[in-house]
Amino acid sequence: MKTKVFIDGSEGTTGLRIYERFQNRDDIEILRIDPEVRKDPEERKKMINASDITFLCLPDVAAKESVSLVENENVIIIDASTAHRTLEGWAYGFPELSKGHREAIRKGKRIAVPGCYASGFISLVYPLVAGGILPKDYPVSSFALSGYSGAGKKTIAAYESQERPAELSSGREYALTQQHKHLKEMKAITGLDRAPLFSPIIDDYYSGMLVSVPLFTDLLAKKETPESLLAYYARYYQGEKFIQVSAADDEIAATGFLAGNGLSGWDGMKIYVTGNEERIVVSAQFDNLGKGASGAAIQCMNIALGCDEAKGLDL
């Protein structure tokens, strides 16, 4: 029997990508809503409760409304919005963090997909805090680079316009007030005592993301080197399909450059450790539309269904 899936918010970037990933799957039946009533609560309610799994690809307010429409206790909700990522009762959709995270996704009826920037940050910081390497009161900072595809239809249209302003040809730092919507989960999921200082940059390419966290080795709980941290990450993520840890002599790292779009179109993530014995930078490279959004949502669904985590994904 096919799994019935409804995508609430199928017109947005994440919703469209989830839909595209189901095109070659014979185990999924997509429940389609008439475009004219796609925002009507009663019609959405019918679709949600007729589904086995509903993906929410909506603004936060609309996502909360959709959850309130659930009456069928068997429906699994996988929410790609910010609305539920730190709430009790919601599994955080990053299974590689621990056995507990994967088990919560497997058993859960409410799953919150991580934010794209948060995915990179948490993949780097959570293992360090869990391993007692990074003190919880460390003043963490992070900088990140992303393609414009994660910024919504209006911004995508602006970047792809023939008459766009010259500034769009340059990287642009934003969230200058330190109020980025991913900060809440970046702090809560990692267990840090304070929110990180976070500086994201949107750049003139479609998809791909690079998130980096600089570390002063004398402020860590114990002395670390790039080599020792690289080995730690390799042990931590050993056996995980979606996360690769670079080798010390990795060809890309050896060039002296890490590109934001280096893994565009791939659904996994790669971790790098660079620097020296005094200052180290740990970095996560991935596709903001893959492991940072729709790919992560599909991975969570696969876990909930008990099938191969990578089914329908590009690894």
What do you see in this structure?
By secondary structure, the protein is an alpha/beta fold. The protein has helices at residues 13-21, 41-50, 60-68, 99-107, 116-130, 153-159, 183-190, 226-236, 251-254, 290-305; strands at 3-8, 28-31, 53-56, 76-79, 91-92, 110-112, 141-146, 172-173, 197-202, 209-216, 243-245, 269-275, 279-286. Helix 1 packs across helix 10. The chain is globular and about 60 Å long.
Nearest-integer average pLDDT: 95
Derived structural class: alpha/beta
Major sheet description: 7 strands, mixed
Count of helix runs: 10
Give the helix level as a range of percent.
25-40%
Element order: H for helix, E for strand: EHEHEHEEHEHEHEHEEHEHEEH
**Rough shape?**
globular
Strand order of the largest sheet: 8-9-7-10-13-12-11
Radius of gyration: 20 Å
Q: What amount of the residues lies in strands?
A: 15-25%
The counted number of beta strands is: 13
| Uncertain residue segments | none
Question: What would a concise description of this structure say?
Answer:
The chain has 315 residues and is an alpha/beta fold. Helix content is 31%, strand content 20%.
Please write out the topology.
Layout: E1 3-8, H1 13-21, E2 28-31, H2 41-50, E3 53-56, H3 60-68, E4 76-79, E5 91-92, H4 99-107, E6 110-112, H5 116-130, E7 141-146, H6 153-159, E8 172-173, H7 183-190, E9 197-202, E10 209-216, H8 226-236, E11 243-245, H9 251-254, E12 269-275, E13 279-286, H10 290-305
Parallel strand pairs: 1-2, 1-3, 3-4, 4-6, 5-6, 7-9, 11-12
Antiparallel strand pairs: 7-10, 8-9, 10-13, 12-13
